[in-house]
Amino acid sequence: MAKKSKKQQPGGTPATVALTEAGVPYTVHAYEHDPSHPSYGEEAAEAMGISPERVFKTLVADVDGALVVAVVPVAGSLDLKALATAVGGKRAAMADPAAAERTTGYVRGGISPLGQRKRLRTVLDASAAAHATICVSAGRRGLEVELSPADLAQLTEAVSAPVGRA
């Protein structure tokens, strides 16, 4: 039996390929990315007409020397101390953008928690559980996927913790 390829499908990204291969229901939302917009996440929420509490950004942090992914609402920010605690670490800082891009295989503003080049430990903000679906980057600027928080957590092997702050 042939093994499914992880190659990017036409019009797809590694994130959408991962979702399709896993058989997870999702919806793609595309919008015209404006490079002058000050916030990728807020731009996505505005363009899609979805509450910023349901649109989540993917941030890469360095916790005690290891890269970790935090998925938090675009309406707030990442609590680095809470992230370190959630993964049993002592100190957290935002990762070097070049290291985040190199490790995930995505560009800043388009980093998805799904289909990363190297799977990183992932923490999904506990607020995601309050929503039937949330949106995360589909792997490029101007492209989001909407899926259930439970499916996202399962696919990324994420732990849930209160790591976002308003």
What does it look like?
- This protein is α+β, with helices and mostly antiparallel strands and 166 residues long.
- It has helices at 14-22, 40-48, 80-86, 97-104, 149-156, and strands at 27-30, 56-63, 66-73, 77-78, 92-94, 121-125, 134-140, 143-147, 159-161, 164-165.
- The chain contains 5 helices and 10 strands, in the order αβαβββαβαβββαββ.
- A 5-stranded mixed sheet has the order 5-2-3-6-9. Strands 1-8-7 form a 3-stranded antiparallel sheet. It has a two-stranded antiparallel sheet with strand order 4-10.
- The protein is globular.
- Residues 1-10 have low confidence and may be disordered.
Strand content: 25-35%
Structural class: alpha+beta
Taking the alpha carbons of the first and last residues, their distance comes to: 49 Å
| SS field, number of helical segments | 5
Computed over alpha carbons, the radius of gyration is 15 Å
Give helix and strand order, one letter per element, not per position.
Answer: HEHEEEHEHEEEHEE
The low-confidence parts are: 1-10
The largest sheet has its strands arranged as 5-2-3-6-9
**What's the main sheet like?**
5 strands, mixed
Keywords for this structure?
166 residues, alpha+beta, five-stranded mixed sheet, three-stranded antiparallel sheet, 28% strand, globular, disordered N terminus
Write the topology of this structure.
Blueprint lengths: L13 H9 L4 E4 L9 H9 L7 E8 L2 E8 L3 E2 L1 H7 L5 E3 L2 H8 L16 E5 L8 E7 L2 E5 L1 H8 L2 E3 L2 E2 L1
Can you summarize this structure?
This protein is of the alpha+beta class. The protein is built from five helices and ten strands; from the N terminus they run H-E-H-E-E-E-H-E-H-E-E-E-H-E-E.
